[in-house]
């Protein structure tokens, strides 16, 4: 039986890249847990620090484990920028709702 020659569209990343990213994720998780025990004076600062660390971890997962680092601009526009735009619109609507809400007395 003849197996046709197929063009490979993927890429092969070195194993050490995955190991480095895994170690970075582990370190960031340790930093997240350590930061949760530290009181930075205001709850919003604690939440902001946790969200920044979570964003860095999500970016590492997206770029290396989901291979978005090697995708073209069309995938980036629909897969990354469009959800960010929707998130900004959603946060904007929440801010409008919170600041212009009339609370009955």
**First and last CA, distance:** 81 Å
SSE order: HHH
How would a textbook summarize the main sheet?
Answer: none
Radius of gyration: 21 Å
Helical residues, percent: 55-70%
Mean pLDDT: 85
Q: What are the segments in which pLDDT stays under 50 over at least 5 consecutive residues? A: none
**Structural class of the helices, strands and pairings?**
mainly alpha
Brief sketch in words of this structure:
The protein has helices at 15-36, 43-65, 73-99. The protein has 105 residues and is mostly helical. α1 runs antiparallel to α2 (43-65).
Structure report:
The model has no long low-confidence stretch (mean pLDDT 85). It contains 3 helices and no strands. It has 105 residues and is mainly α. The protein folds into 2 domains: 58 residues; 35 residues. Helix 1 packs antiparallel against helix 2. It is flat.
What key phrases describe this protein's structure?
about 100 residues, mainly alpha
Summarize the helices and strands and which ones pair or pack.
Layout: H1 15-36, H2 43-65, H3 73-99
Helix pairs in contact: 1-2
């Amino acid at each position: 039986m003849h197996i046709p020659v197929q063009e490979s569209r993927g890429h092969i990343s070195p194993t050490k890249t995955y190991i480095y990213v895994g170690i970075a994720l582990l370190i960031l998780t340790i930093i997240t847990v350590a930061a949760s025990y530290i009181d930075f004076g205001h709850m919003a600062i604690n939440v902001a620090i946790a969200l920044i660390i979570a964003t860095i971890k999500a970016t590492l997962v997206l770029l290396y484990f989901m291979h978005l680092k090697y995708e073209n601009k069309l995938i980036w526009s629909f897969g990354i920028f469009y959800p960010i735009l929707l998130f900004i619109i959603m946060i904007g609507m929440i801010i409008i709702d919170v600041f212009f809400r009339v609370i009955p007395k």
